[in-house]
Specification:
Aminopeptidase, 8-stranded mixed β-sheet, binds zinc ion, 11 helices, 16 strands, 2 domains, Alpha-Beta Plaits, 387 residues, 36% helix, alpha/beta, 4-stranded antiparallel β-sheet
Amino acid sequence: MPVLNRVAEFAEDMQTWRRWMHRNPELGFELPKTAAFVAERLREIGVDELHEGIAGTGMVALVRGQRDGPAIGLRADMDALPIREETGAAHASETDGRMHACGHDGHTAMLLGAAKYLVETRRFAGTAVLIFQPAEELGGGGQVMCREGIMERFGIEQVYALHCSPDHEAGVFATRAGPIMAAVDDFEIRIRGVGGHAAWPDRCADPVAAAVQLASALDTVLARNVNAFDNVVLSVTRIEAGSTSNVIPAEGLLAGTVRSFSKQAQALVKRRIGEICDGIAAAMAVEIVLDYHEEYPVTVNHPAETAFAVEVAREVAGATNVTSEHPPEMGAEDFSFMLEARPGAYLFLGQGLGPRCHHPAFDFNDAVAPLGASFFARLVERALPLP
Ligand SMILES: [Zn+2]
Ligand SMILES: [Zn+2]
């Protein structure tokens, strides 16, 4: 069975909603206009309950089936990015320096489309819990929603999410059981030495020399410490020190990111960065302070729920348009917090090859919205079948 016919009839609605959100991008937890717009649509659609103000501008809508039963969570993110749009589209961002470059406008529109169908048909036994979250890009809105207790409060037993993908042909679903997106950590290393005249380095403790040593020593962590079969990235992305040619500065700074797929590798890299900082501080007679933050954990798809989601995707998109062998990616997702709280799965929905997410020319492809909305709707109907 292809896209649900009734959902296909909402294609124009979803496009209109999506393009309104695209013209009005907002960032992080500060999504007053977007949240008000989504809440207004949900009231219009006639969801049974709407709980606003979760994690700031996040919200949860409930749609009850014809009979009682378990609750299934479906999540969409609503935030945009601080990027100046270059799509040239008629519905381009009306706020300079902000745009929906990750397709979250499309995710939200698809979940609204599913809501409309589920309210109209209610062919399931239980509750569809529609989760609209802020701050996926930065700030971990998904984690905040979990901390504010949405899983317990709404009795969610399984949870699912879709992300559009410009790396796949339009209409292709791609996922995998197990780790699918990396954990992301950030670090900042502050070096304090003794500044002075560049002609007398012997009277200084040089943070520039320490920064150079640090940067090259950090590269050895992956080459010499991490198991060759463990996928880890360590990138130093920022080095700052000094301002002129004849002064040795007193301070320096390095910053970077670590991406990993296992707790062991993550812990090992974190520990080695600390040891290297201490060792170089001693060797170079400077003071080094490491500030290491674990941001989002690994996004791990649960095997049974992933197999189920793949089955539903095959029903909606056709067997040849679904792959369950998508390789893990070094990007990260705060849906990982929801998958730590409940079993579920995260899938990519191909929107046709084009500019990648976070590129100024990226735009969600409205043509795939009926597929995404049908997928969400069928997930509910099949996970919570009527007797
Ligand atoms: Zn993104
Ligand atoms: Zn995204």
